[in-house]
User: Fold these one by one.
Assistant:
Number 1:
Amino acid sequence: MPVPHPETVAVVAGRPPHTPDQPMNTPVHLVSNYVGGGQLEYGRFGNPSWTAFEDALGELEGGRAVSFASGMAAISAVLDLVPAGGRIVAPRHSYTGTIGQLEDVAARGLAEVVFVDIADADAVREAVSGAAMLWIESPTNPALEVADLPRITADAHAAGAVVVVDNTFATPLRQRPIEAGADLVVHSVTKYLAGHSDLVMGAVVAAREEDAAALAARRTLRGGIPSPLDAFLALRGLRTLHVRLDRAEANARELVARLGGHPALEVRYPGFGAIVSIVVRGGAEAADAFVAATRLWVHATSLGGVESTLERRRRWAAEPATIPAGLVRLSVGIEHIDDLADDLLAALV
Ligand SMILES: *Cc1c(COP(=O)(O)O)cnc(C)c1O
C-alpha cells in the first residue's frame, strides 16, 4: 500500500488489528494495576488507551508521541531535558503558560532564558549561539507571527541546540515540524486535536526514539499522566480533525475577507489555520464592549473547538504588554459562515 494521506492516517491509525471480534476502537482502559511480569505493570507506567492516541498522533507528525496530563505538563517535561544552567531561546509572544514556565525556571536559576521575535530569523540566529534549546511557537499565540522553521531550525542545530516546536495552532495537517528538522513537537491536545472543549491533555512527539523514551521516563517520574478516558476522547476527536479544520479554515478565510477594510479594526491572519486576531481600534474598552455584544460567538479563553469563541487577550495580566490592548483572538468554529460573520459585524457597531 502506498503511504496514506494525513486524512487517512487520522482515521485509521491507532486501531486494533483487523481480526474477527477485535473492537473497532481501543476501549477506555480504566485500570491502575496489571498482572505483573509484562510490559505495563502499573497505571502510571502505561495504558493501552494512551498508546492508541499516541500511535495516531505520532504517525501524523512523523515521530513517536508521548501523551501528558495537559499541554503544560508536556511543556514542563520538555524543559526538564535542558541541562542545568543551559540557555533557552523562546518567542516573546509565546503562549502565556509557556512564558510562565520559562520565567519560573529562570527565576529558580535552572536555566537562562532569552526572548526573541521568532519571525526575525537574524535575531534568532544571533540568540541561539551557545543555546541548549530553541523553543519555537508558530504561528504565535495570539500575535500570529510566523517563523521560518527550516531556516531557524538549521541555525539552531548548527549552534548545537535542541529544537522544539509548539504546533498547537497549526496542527500536523498544516505544519509538520519534524520534516522541517525539529527534534520535538509539543501539543496542547486540549485544542484542535481533541476539538470539542471537553478535556485537557497534552503530548510531545519526538523525532528520535531515545528522546521519546526519555520523555516517557519523565512522565513516569513526575506523574503528569493523562486520564485514560481523556485519551480515548482525544483520539475520537482526532478522527475528524481534517474535516473540522478544513471547515473552520474555510470559515476563517471568508471571515477575513468580510472583515477586511472594516473601519473599526485591523485583521491579522497568517494565511492558514482557523485562528484570526483582530485589533479593535477603539482599544481595550471598545474591544470589551465588542466581545460582550456577540450572541453566537462565546467569550471564552480556550480555542480549537467546533464552536466559535473569542477573547480580548490583554484581559490577562500575564499577556505581554507588546500585544495591543484591543486585540481580540477569534477561534473560528464550524458553524455556518453567514451566522458567524453577521454576529461579529452586528457586535462591532
Ligand atoms: C493552550 C495552550 C498550551 C497549554 O496547554 P494546556 O492543555 O492548556 O495545558 C500550550 N501552547 C499553546 C499554543 C496553547 O494554546
Number 2:
Amino acid sequence: MNKIKEIQHPLRPAWVEIDLVQLQENFRLIFADKPKKLQILSVVKDQAYGHGAVAVAKCAIAAGVKYLAVVTLDEALELRQNGINTPILLFGERPEEQLQLCIARNLTCCVNNTKTAKALSQLALKQGKLVPVHVEIDTGMSRYGIRWDEALPVIEKMAEYKGIALEGIMSHFAMSDETDKTYALLQLQRFNRVLAEMGRKIIRVKWRHICNTGGFLDLPQAHLDIVRIGILPLGVYPSKVCRRISGLKTVMSVKVKIAAIRELKTGDCVGYGMHYKAKSGRRIAVIPIGYGDGFPRVRNAGVVLIRGLRAPVIGGNAMDAMMVDITHIPEAGLWDDVVVMGKQGTEDISAHEIAQLKNSVSYDILTGWRRRLPRVYLQKDQEK
Ligand SMILES: *Cc1c(COP(=O)(O)O)cnc(C)c1O
C-alpha cells in the first residue's frame, strides 16, 4: 500500500511511527467481528495510549464508533478544539469547578455520587439545558462508582434531578482478559442485578456498558449496548490468553538510527556503572534512545532489531542512548534503521516483550513513549 510520511522539519533520528492505514484496517476488522447491534465506544485517553488522540478519534469516527471516552477535561477539550463533535464520555470523577465547562462543551460526565449529579443538574437548569450523564456502578473494583448493593436508591434519587438525563449506566471489570473469568462473571451478575432493579422501577437508559477490550473479546454475554475499547484497535491484546481477531496488527512502532559504531577490545567496559565488560573483541552500535524516551531502564537486558536480526542491549542504558551488540551483524552500518518496538523482516518486538523488562504491561509501554519522540503518521497517499 502506498504510504507517505508527514514530516514538517528534520526529525531527530528516533521516533514513534503510527500506521493509520493499519489502524483503519483494525477498526474494520473489529466492526466485522462484533455482533451487528453492538455499538463501539473508542477510548482515546492518554493520547490514545500514546498514538495521538485526535488522529485515532478521527479514524474511529470514520469507522463508525458512536462514542469517545477520555479521562481528563484537557483531553476532551483537545478533541472538541479539533472539530470532533461525537459524544465524549469523561471517565472518573470531576471536581465541581470543571462541571460548567463540561456542560458548555457537551461532554458527558460519569457520575458516582448524588453530590456531583445534583451540582450538574443545577448548572444545567440555569442554562436551560438537559445534560446527559452515565452512572457508574462499582461491582468489585473499588475504584469509581456506587456500590452495586447500595445503588438503586442513589439512582432513584439521581433520576429526580431535572437538569440531568440518565443516558447511561456502566461498570468496569477488574479482570476480564485472563482465562479464569470467575470474578468477571461475579461482577457481571452484580451489574445485572442493578439493571434488573432499575427495570422494576422503570428507569431506562440508552447505554448499558461494562466491557473493556477483554470483556468484548471473551465475554459476549456482557456486551450489553456498547463496549468501551481502547487497546484493541491499536492492534495490541490486553493479555496472552484472550481471543484473537485474525488480521489485527500493531499500529505503533518505535524506530531509531544507529548513531555510532565502535569496536570493543577484550576488557572494555560499556555504559554507566560498568555493568558490561567485553570478554572478547565485539562490534557494538550506539543508538540515540534511552530511558528518557520511555525505554525501561535496564542492565544487559532487552533487544532491538537491526537488519532483521535481534541485537541485545549491553551494559546499563542511559537517558538518551544505549549500546547494542552487533558482532553477529557485520553488514550493519552507521544510520541504519533500528526497530526498538515493532516488526523488521520476520522478527517482531512487542510492547508485551518490552513490558517484561520492567515487570509491567503493554499499556504501560504504549503510553510510556515520551513526547520527546516525534510521532510520524503513515497514511494513504490520496487521503488527507
Ligand atoms: C481504559 C478504560 C477502558 C479501555 O480498556 P482497554 O482494555 O484498553 O480496552 C474501558 N473502560 C474504562 C473505564 C477505562 O478506564
